[in-house]
Each structure stands twice: as structure tokens, then as C-alpha cells.
Amino acid sequence: MERISDDRKISKEDVLLEEKYYDDVEYVLIPHDDLLNNIKNLAGRIRNDYKEVYFLCVLEGAKVFYDELKKHLGNLKFEEGFVSAKSYSNTGSTGDIRVKGFDFDELKEKNVLIVDDILDTGRTLHKILKDVKRSKPQSLEISVLFEKRNNYEHGLKAKYTGFSIPDKFIIGFGMDYNEKFRELKHTCVISKNAIEKYKV
Fold first, then answer.
1. With a threshold of 0.85, does the pTM exceed it?
2. Which residues are catalytic?
């Protein structure tokens, strides 16, 4: 896991951020190339640890991360499934976790690796873990691209984590604010202007 310091701030000019995002981004936290290199390393660890694995990707946020991860799995034998989970409105978790779109019975006696975008409050992953465990998998682990350093005592630990990041609301590389900014290729800290502009 790569630790991103609390005071790391990369200027928008340094990564040639598209001009249309300038007002919506406070600063860049992790440039696109750093994200890709980190995911490639994560994939190597997974490839070494498994002979066969079932990836359960959490939509929508983890899709970009998962698609990149799959490019580097080599000859690893795997199955995949997708589960939809939503808990955020504006910049906060609602606590109302809605999980749908997947038959968890498929996971019986499988080596399951849940792929999610971020470990923050832990509420979404707790809910999904509970559903997966009922199906009696052979093994169960978690991979996240980001683990946020905050005060939530969720008791969860992802075996495969890309970055430890400060307690900031991030957008880009699949991460959204009210369904906006997923297509932004860098991971950025959202501006106050954008929080107000796109609030629902």
C-alpha cells in the first residue's frame, strides 16, 4: 500500500488537467500514471496468491479500477460478478445501503475477492460481506484502490489496497460526486464550488 501524505497537493497545471474541470477540482491527489502503476502491482500480488478466484466487483465506483486490474492478471483463472451498491448522497454516507443485482448463492465454495473503490465508513463493505458470508465461500478477501484515513472504527482490513489517502472527498477514476466526475482520469479532491454546484 502506498501512503499519500496529508499535505500532498499536485497542481492542476502539472498534470495538464482538462480546462473544463478547473473550477470543480481543488487539487490533484494522484495522477493517472501513478494509479495505473499501483494497480499493476496489486494485480501481480493477486496473481501470485490465487490459482483460481471469483471477483465480485462493486458498481459503479470500482468498475474503472477493476477493468484496469483485469489487464494484468495474466493466466489467472477467474470468474466475475457485479453487485450494485449505493450509500452516498452529496459528500456523506446515508447509512441506507442498497445492494442489488446479484445472486450470492453463486459464491458457494468459491475463493471470493470483493473489489471496491474505497474503504471509508465501511458500511457498504460490511453489508456486502454479510451477504457473501451467508453463501459459504471457500475464502473471502477484499481489494480496494483507496483506504481513507479517518476516525471510523469499521474493523475492516482489505488484503489488497492501492493507496492510503487523507480524509478528503475524492473524485475521478471511477469515483463520483452525485454521479459526476467518474470519467476524470486523475484522482482529485473536489472543490467547494463543485460541492455546491452539483448538490442534490
1. yes
2. 120
